Amino acid sequence: MRPSHLALAVLVAAVWGVNFTVIEIGLDHFPPLLFSALRFLVAALPAVFFVGRPKVAWKWIVAVGLVLGVAKFGLLFVGMDAGMPAGLSSLVLQIQAVFTAAIAALALGERPSRTRLLGMLVALAGIAVAAVDEGASGPLGAFALVVAAAACWGASNVITRRAAPPDALNFMVWVSTVPVLPLLALSLLTEGPSRDLAALRALDWQGAGTLVYVAWITTVFGFGAWGLLLRHHPASTVAPFSLLVPVFGMSSAALFLGEPVSPLRWCAAALLVGGVALTSLGPVRRPGAHSVDVPAPRTTTVGS
């Protein structure tokens, strides 16, 4: 990988990591489900008019839009609003690689190798340590919501694998059109019209800035740059850079939000990142075939 692409890969990981801190700030301005709906609305418009027509069937766009956009991001934003720290959220979401491998084994018949199974166990140990750390200082219910978000992310990864979109940016922009109305409806039902209207009327430059960042910087720029890297390099070369996301996520949360990083949390980070690395990069066995080096399907994002 040449230096310019190496720098771009690190920049994308930084953008996606800092995104969790930006989400935390945005939640001070919007109810979580409204914030998520606005994020997808701003990501889709006006980009949808410039990326061309969808390059995969609408059934895949709708499926990923509902599972990733409504379920994953809805749970993530609600979990963070309920007290899950931004830095820890960026770390815990990486367990999506384990869910991806497990769901792919069930749905696609991809048998994980011993290396991948070991990675899954190590990553799960990291989640257990993180849960112990969070249980001592924060709400476990919010922690569980973010784990559930990671599970939905894993399911959306497998659906994306089946869809096989040739253009990641085109796919993500069209996927962003799907969650807007369901999330708005859920916001109106659970957060209430008066709270939503109050948030929109009180919109200031900081709130608008968080929307621009989570929509255009993390989604449009992030996926566009990631897709560019995948067009020039094997997935096994690009994917490891996503492991930098929680590093930037935890660092930015500590720097800008003053979130403490306990020794137990560093231990959880080491276990989880190491386990995810083994899970993502270990070989996978397809039915009736020898082991082949195929990275687990991932759409590292918009984590974010």
Automatic annotation (TrEMBL):
Keyword Ribonucleoprotein carried by entry: no
Keywords linked to the UniProt accession: Membrane, Transmembrane, Transmembrane helix
Matching Gene3D superfamilies: 1.10.3730.20
InterPro entries, A to Z: AA-Vitamin_Transporters, EamA_dom, EmrE-like
CC per GO annotation: membrane
Family: Belongs to the EamA transporter family.
Pfam families hit by this protein: EamA
Protein name: O-acetylserine/cysteine efflux transporter
Compartments in which it is found: Membrane
Highest taxon in the source lineage: Bacteria
Residues that span the membrane, as ranges: 33-51, 58-80, 86-108, 115-132, 138-159, 171-190, 210-230, 237-257, 263-281
Principal subcellular localization: membrane
